[in-house]
Design brief:
The protein has 395 residues and is α/β, with parallel strands linked by helices. The chain folds into two domains: 268 residues, 3-Layer(aba) Sandwich (Aminopeptidase); 100 residues, Immunoglobulins (Immunoglobulin-like, Sandwich), CATH 2.60.40. 23% of the residues lie in helices and 23% in strands. Strand 12 and strand 13 form a beta hairpin. The N and C termini lie far apart (75 Å). It binds zinc ion.
């Protein structure tokens, strides 16, 4: 009997049958950008001017997404490598202090909101104390090429014209559409698509859950196949994708769509996106579902529309309604006991989230100054995010 089992295992190894799930898999995560420079897609927001470090930078939102992905992957036993874990300049003494706390990245933001030249430098070498902070695209590609992870994901948001209402999801792999230059790179993206498209807090302008935008970078950006080779000899369009391993780059949404940019200022909104990426990666490896559930929504006015030069919304969509800043959202269990609270931020997105909930029935209570209090019954399911879009009436 024992012999049969051993024989079967040996046979499985020979045939290349991989163990199910994320345990032992190597996942390389690249949060796009890294500094507070003009190249890091700075964009003015309702509250903050262009290049103010509290305004929008892809640097910060991409990192928030990636840290959430990493957290879930590690809980499932994956070996996660991140190109960076912080935004902005990391000093030598900080490296020596062993700055490994993933939640300290905001230290790099100066308290006065002016741009400081020091915060434009990001790159520091990995050493025996520290986490690497690499932003150079070719350096990342070369590292990926030497590590050969089981999965690579680069996280970004897209740009059109400021004030444009274009907002879609797109996944780009190295190569031509229908012809990835490294096997399975497109298959991974197709698997992830439905998980990431499922975001009722945003308003998509193009594509659908069953109509994915999974395209080769050369086909998408133009250029002559197979593109210019880099140091590792890999061809393609995007410098960060030129390695010989499976993976792709995701443009999660458009930060030039004003309501979406306001949402991307909220860390928890970015965490929700990270959670969706995690689900997409896990699905590819046929991993186990989570036992906890999630709850997320946006608190908006039922009658007032947004009217601001930096807030062009898609006509007739949910984004026309004014998000309520500083609203309180209370979470109560089935016995009516208050268990959690969330205060919406001051960035005109109305976003609230509750992570890691026991599946079951809950009640949400929404309170905001000048508005009528409202309650709503919700069901939280394991491994799912329940989305709600409450609209409050003026008193
Ligand atoms: Zn980007």
């Amino acid at each position: 009997m024992k012999k049969t089992v051993v024989l079967l295992l040996v046979l499985m190894c020979i045939m290349g049958v991989q163990a199910k799930g994320l345990k032992g898999k190597t996942i390389y995560l690249n949060p796009g950008h890294g500094g507070y420079t003009t190249g890091d897609r700075p964009t003015a927001t309702i509250n903050w001017e262009y290049m103010d470090t509290l305004s929008f930078y892809e640097t910060r939102s991409n990192l928030w997404k990636a840290l959430e992905v990493a957290k879930h992957l590690r809980q499932d036993g994956a070996n996660v490598i991140m190109s960076r874990t912080r935004s902005g300049y990391v000093t030598k003494s900080q490296m020596e202090d062993g700055i490994l706390n993933e939640n300290q990245e905001s230290h790099a933001i100066p308290s006065e909101h002016k741009v400081d030249k020091r915060f434009n430098q990001v790159e520091t070498a990995a050493d025996e104390y520290g986490q690497q902070q690499i932003v150079g695209l070719e350096r990342i590609a070369c590292q990926v090429d030497s590590i050969k992870p089981d999965y690579f994901l680069s996280m970004h948001s897209n740009a059109h014209k400021n004030g444009s209402t274009v907002n879609y999801l797109v996944m780009l792999f190295r190569g031509e559409t229908g012809k990835p230059y490294f096997e399975n790179s497109d298959k991974m993206a197709f698997t992830m698509w439905p998980y990431v498209f499922d975001n009722p807090l945003s308003v998509w302008s193009h594509y659908a859950a069953d109509k994915p935008a999974v395209v080769g970078d050369i086909s998408w950006m133009g250029g002559t196949p197979p593109g210019t080779p880099n140091r590792t000899g890999a061809t393609g369009y995007y410098a960060v994708l030129k390695f010989n391993a499976p993976g792709f780059l995701v443009e999660g949404s458009f930060h030039t769509y004003d309501p979406e940019r306001q949402r991307l200022l909220n860390r928890d909104y970015c965490r929700l996106e990270g959670l969706r990426y995690y689900r997409g990666i896990r699905a590819y490896f046929d991993g186990k579902p989570e036992k906890v559930g999630y709850l997320a929504g946006t608190v908006k006015s039922a009658t007032e529309k947004m009217n601001h030069p930096r807030y062009t919304y898609r006509e007739g969509s949910d984004d026309q309604w004014k998000p309520i800043n500083g609203a309180m959202v209370y979470l109560m269990d089935s016995r009516g006991v208050n268990i959690k609270g969330y205060r919406t931020d001051g960035e005109y997105n109305g976003v609230f989230t509750f992570f890691g909930l026991k599946p079951g029935k809950y009640t949400l209570r929404y309170e905001a100054y000048g508005y009528e209090t409202q309650t709503e019954e919700v069901v939280v399911e394991a491994d799912k995010t329940t989305y709600v879009l409450p609209k409050l009436n003026r008193k």
